[in-house]
Amino acid sequence: MSDPTVADTRRLNSKPQDLTDAYGPPSNFLEIDVYDPQTTGVGRNRFTTYEVRMQTNLPIFKLKDSVVRRRYSDFEWLKNELERDSKIVVPPLPGKALKRQLPFRGDEGIFEDSFIEERRVGLEQFINRLAGHPLAQNERCLHMFLQDESIDRNYIPGKVRHSPRDENDVYSAHLLNPTPPGCLALSLEPTLSLP
Amino acid sequence: MSFFSFGQSAEIDVVLTDAETRKKAEHKTEDGKKDKYFLFYDGETVAGKVNVTLKNPGKRLEHQGIKIEFVGQIELYYDRGNHHEFVSLVKDLARPGELTQSQTFDFEFTHVEKPYESYTGQNVKLRYFLRATVSRRLNDISKEMDIVVHTLSTYPELNSSIKMEVGIEDCLHIEFEYNKSKYHLKDVIVGKIYFLLVRIKIKHMEIDIIKRETTGTGPSVYHENDTIAKYEIMDGAPVRGESIPIRLFLAGYEMTPTMRDINKKFSVRYYLNLVLIDEEERRYFKQQEITLWRKGDVVRKSMSSQATIGAQRFEGSKSSVSSVLDLKCRA
Fold first, then answer.
1. A31-44 tens-digit pLDDT
2. 3-class SS at B325?
3. What is the pTM of this model?
4. Nearest to A179 among B199, B278, B283 (CB)
5. How far is CA B114 from the centre of its chain?
6. Do A189 and B167 touch (CB under 8 A)?
7. Residues in a beta bridge with B167
8. Which CATH superfamily is domain A20-157 in?
């Protein structure tokens, strides 16, 4: 007869995992590369664009592989749209480098190779952090930024999905632990049962 | 204590009858230190002696009465002036008069009700104590002796598991299960997290035990949250179909039983917070209340609850319940 004072600590039963799930590709694949900086234009009207390539298997994105060209002000536009329309804490962009745009500099200013590389890295980190955010994925502006050839600044802001994944559902729970600044906490809500 | 060197003063000492045999329990004081006090349960008699020792053996001690009280009170730190006494018993030991020599008085509070457990928290304190007082015209001489009270429970009749499917639509779906909803303080939380859909990049997962002390009522309710434990249960990225086990031993943590609306003054509740953290430090969490209770040292599990525990291993197999019961009966 087992000792009644010792608790039963055996594992709970669980279904064995399907091997195609265990060894198949993960469903969370999302990679964005920001590369190939090209400076176009002449004199004062020069600007640098970067190629932004997204590869993903997330169903919320229409295209699984997309390439677009974007400049720094496009990233700024995206950040502003999200700060206005969504409740998420948007990650920081690399700096505006206003000092580099002043005249009488000894170097190339914002067209300096080392600066462009620094900025490229910062933009890549920014867009990867943002695109992986479940709430950012709801926003039309993010999809337009990543997958439309050009950004229509006169677009009508809105949500991509109509189903319950919106700020009210996700933020409804009382957040108990103080989250570090810039961090995000999403409450897990009861999901609709799958058939 | 009197500062005047003339006149008579006395020292009071309270000694319990069963001081030699009664167990002591550790209890935190307000400043965080741990002390040992005599342990009592509801319904137990509190009996002993009050020794009044005269400081100057030649002189007499005039007094307005000697008494001993047994008090149970709740003290809210932000309202120190008002003590809420929920137990207050008095025994008069001596009528007003004078003591010519040191004297000992017997007292007994029979079968005292002690409805709540002693508790020292962040904003509130519930304590029980004996207070012996020699009343005098100018200043009383008194001595307090704190005791600790534990409230015991037995295995609950109904103790269903907690099982729920939660997530973020089309992004993360998990099913979590904890084997019980009511745990005793030395119990083990056995559970599992089953991943149904993983479209985010998870870095690790942990379970936190959170204690929430609530004081005040109505508009001035105040919650004080304290994370008692953080226990990592998974490191790395899970995929669909994976099941992560949980085995969390509660005996290692300093916790009290769940206390609900004690004398309408405060509550102490405990929550399990399941937290998943992704590669960008975003946190996804699900909080669930559990009930904690204190088990007595010598409590025998009933046979039916042992069988239920055995049956919980097997999802939905009814036949095994009866076979386990059969085995127990034959043993």
1. 999 999 999 998 88
2. helix
3. 0.83
4. B283
5. 13
6. yes
7. A189, B173
8. Phox-like domain (3.30.1520.10)
